[in-house]
Amino acid sequence: MIAIVRPSRISGILCAPRSKSDMQRACAAALLHQGVTHIIDPGKSNDDLAALDVISKLGAEVAVQDKTVVVKSKGVHPFFDQINCGESGLGIRMFTPIASLSSKELTISGTGSLLNRPMHFFDAIFPRLGISIHSNAGRLPLVIKGPMLPSSIEVDGSLSSQFLTGLLMAYSAAGARDVTITVKDLKSKPYIDLTLGVLTSFGMKVPVVKDYETFTFSAVDHVQPVGEISYLVEGDWSGASFLFVAGAIAGGISIQGMKADSVQADIKILEAIKDAGASLRYEDGLFHVGPADLHAFHFDATECPDLFPPLVALAAYCSGNTVIKGALRLTHKESNRALTLQDVFGKMGVHIELDGDLMIVHGNRHLKGAKVHSHHDHRIAMAAAIAALGADGEVLIEEAEAINKSYPDFYEHLKALGTSITLQTV
User: Fold this and answer.
1) Pick the CATH number of 2-17+235-424 from 3.40.50.880, 1.10.10.10, 3.30.1330.30, 3.65.10.10
2) Tell me: the pLDDT tens digits for 74-119?
3) How far apart are the C-alpha atoms of 346 and 342, rounded to whole Å?
4) Known catalytic residue: 306?
């Protein structure tokens, strides 16, 4: 699909999408919960749908009822021996340890860019937990056979916190006793807070955490509640970040459905919006954001690397050079986002420098209309569309359907705010 986005002024009120980070964790917890779970206001992105498919193959009965997903489960008892996590990095890293709770041999794979993303973590860790594993030289597919035998281990958290999320959920469900997961150089700590919050909401065993370095499960008996649980999926700060930047560039707009006290890492977009000088206020459950005299800012995105695309779109319209830290974390995303952002925004007249872990965006406020490619990356497609709002001509985005991975309503939401967009099927 091709999306043609024309320069536009936007206005109105919009409800942000649901958090796929929260939704996928809720799906995993619903599978592990012995009983019935009502997931209220569920997400509908490709990653969310993949998570529902995975838990249905691992033993849960899943029924979609209007704005609720009902999950009935007795734990991990796979119906199939083939599991596909789609293109979800969180999905593959979270559900693989959970699947290993079963003694059945399982083949776990994915699609698209996920096939090239490193999974050496499992090769190193699983044999220490009694799990047989065969990988494709550290890539998918993975063939595993449990059951997992939780023990005290040390893991590297520098690549992604998602591996730790999977271990925490699996250990909790396994009733792990007197074991500690020691983590070295943990990145994206707020996402671990989100995981711990979901475990708490589902009444699961929660480890004692010390400085995000040790996660200890004690020998104290814990009985997970059996029965019905209702879980409300919160708004997605990752997807909403693009709306906030759109408001700062071409608004103002109002955004509803977001928790002002969320532990999601990408809530930090609010800091960037304020530091850039945009108009921002929160009142009666609504965030109001509008344009102003935007200026360069400094931002550390090490703990929230998914913010790089919207941050670059914002920085492009700021006077001066914006410095964003954390660029080394962009290599193993849906694309190599550092290079992809250079390519896409370079075509729109924005110069981006890479200096080790720093990305320097030379703002010019006068972006050009251009033909760009999403590189099959949902956040790149959205960043290009947002940047197009203030350009001097239309921006044509190839492979624009990449947005379905996380925010399938994105273009329709922009249209509802007054953006001129034409979608063409190729």
Assistant:
1) 3.65.10.10
2) 999 999 999 999 999 999 999 999 999 999 999 999 999 899 998 9
3) 6
4) yes
